[in-house]
Amino acid sequence: MPTSTPAEQNPVDPAQLIANPYEAYARLREAGPVHRITGTDGLPAWLVTRYDDVRQAIADPRLSLDKRNAKPGGYHGLSLPPALDANLLNMDPPDHTRIRRLVSKAFTPRRVELLREPVRKTADALLDTIAPLGRADLIASYAAPLPIAVICDLLGVAPDDRRDFRSWTDALVAPDPARPEKTKAAVRSMLGFFTGLLAAKRAVPADDLLSELISVRDDEDRLTEDELMSLAFLILFAGYENTVHLIGNATLALLSHPDQLAALRADPGALGPAVEELARYDGPVPLAIRRFPTEDITVGGVGIPAGETVLLSLAAAHRDPRRFTDPDRLDIGRDASGHLALGHGIHYCLGAPLARMETETALTALLDRFPRLTLDAAPGELKWRPSMRARGLVALPVSY
C-alpha cells in the first residue's frame, strides 16, 4: 500500500441517507474526503465524498466495474443471471468500448431531437387524462408512464406487451430484505419477458433499436447472446428508472422553490439549462456504480487496497462548496456544467441526451398545462424510495 492518511471512521445510517441524504453527506464530506463505512449489505466499503476526488475516480481506469475484480468475500451485490448481468454497468474496456459503440448511435443528440415531438404528444395525452381530476400523484400518472412509453417505443415493445416494469425495478433498486422472493420473482419475470421479446423480434424484425441490435448479434456476431439480452435490459431499466426520478425530483424542487418556478415560467427558454441545475440539486443517482481497484490506490490522500468496494457519492459531490457556490441553494440560472448526475468520461450516460430531452419536455408540458400547479402535501409527508442508490419519490401528490 502507498503511504496515506487513514480514512475517517464514520457510521452511516442508511435511513438518514434516504430521508435527508444531503445533510448526512455534508457531515461526512466536511469530516474527511474518504470514509470507511458498512454498506446496506453489511459489508465494508470506502465512501468518497468530495467533488474533485469523485470526478477523478469516476474516470480512473484502475477503478473497475467488473465484479470479478472484487476481493473474495467482498461485495456480492444483486445476484442476476448472466443473461441480465453482462451489461455496461459491469464492464471495463475493451468489452465496454465495443458494446457502447454499437448502441451509441441510437442516442445521438440529432436522433433524440427527432423524438421530441412524439414525447410531447405522449406527455400531453397523459396530462389530458389527469386534467379533469384537479389533483393527482404525478409519479404514478405522469413521471413513470412517460419514460416507459418512450423507451418501449425506442426498443420496439408494443403497447400490449408492456409489463409492470415499475414493480420489477422497485424490487431490484430497493429490495425488501424480509422478502427476498420478490426480487427473485422480478428477475425471473424480466428474464422471461426479454427472452420472449427477443424471440418475437427475431421472427418479425421491425424498424426499432432492438431489431437493429439483434441484427448485429446474428449477422455480424459482435454481441454474445447474453450481451444482447443484458443490453436490452439495461436500456429499459436505466432509461426508465433514472428518468422517472429526474422528472419527479425536478418537479418537487420547483414546487418547493416558488421563486425559481416563477422565474422559469417567466422565461420558458431557460428550461434547458435549468435541467442541468435540477439534476445537480437533487439527481436520481446518489451513488455511482460501485467500483473495485485493480491495484492499491490513493484517493483523497487515503490508501485503498485492491479489490475493496469503492462508492462514489454524487450527492455529496454536487453539494461540495469547493466546486459549487452556495450548493444547497437551487438556482436555475446557475452554470451547473460539470455536474456528475449523468456520469463522466467513458462512463458518461449513453442515454443522457434522451434523459435531458424527456425531462425538459415533461416539465414544459406540465407547466404549460397547469399554471396553478402546487404541492398537495407537506414536504415532510413525502416518502422516498428506501434505497441509497436511487433517489426518487414513492408518490408526488399535486393539485392544479
How many β strands by DSSP?
Answer: 11
What structural class do the secondary elements suggest? alpha+beta
Overall structural domain count? 1
Largest beta-sheet characterization: 4 strands, mixed
Name the beta content range: 5-15%
Q: What is the CATH class designation?
A: Mainly Alpha
| First-to-last CA distance | 59 Å
User: In DSSP terms, counting alpha (H) and pi (I) runs of 4 or more, how many helices?
Assistant: 17
CATH superfamily: Cytochrome P450
Flag low-confidence runs.
Answer: none
> What's the Cα radius of gyration?
21 Å
The name CATH uses for the topology is Cytochrome p450
Helix content: 40-55%
Elements, N to C (H/E): EHHEEHEHHHHEHHHHHHHHEEEEHHEE
Mean pLDDT equals 90
Give a brief outline of the structure.
This protein is an alpha+beta fold and 400 residues long. It contains 17 helices and eleven strands.
Question: What tags apply to this protein structure?
Answer:
about 400 residues; alpha+beta; Cytochrome p450; four-stranded mixed β-sheet; three-stranded antiparallel β-sheet; 17 helices; 11 strands; about 10% strand; iron ion binding; heme binding; Cytochrome P450; heme; metal-binding
Which helices and strands, and how do they pair?
Blueprint: E1 8-9, H1 14-19, H2 21-31, E2 34-38, E3 44-48, H3 51-58, E4 63-64, H4 82-85, H5 95-104, H6 109-113, H7 116-130, E5 135-137, H8 138-143, H9 145-155, H10 165-173, H11 180-203, H12 209-220, H13 225-255, H14 258-266, H15 271-281, E6 292-293, E7 297-299, E8 302-304, E9 310-312, H16 314-318, H17 352-369, E10 374-375, E11 397-399
Parallel strand pairs: 1-2, 3-9
Antiparallel strand pairs: 2-3, 4-6, 5-11, 7-8, 10-11
Helix pairs in contact: 7-9, 7-17, 9-13, 10-11, 13-15, 13-17, 15-17
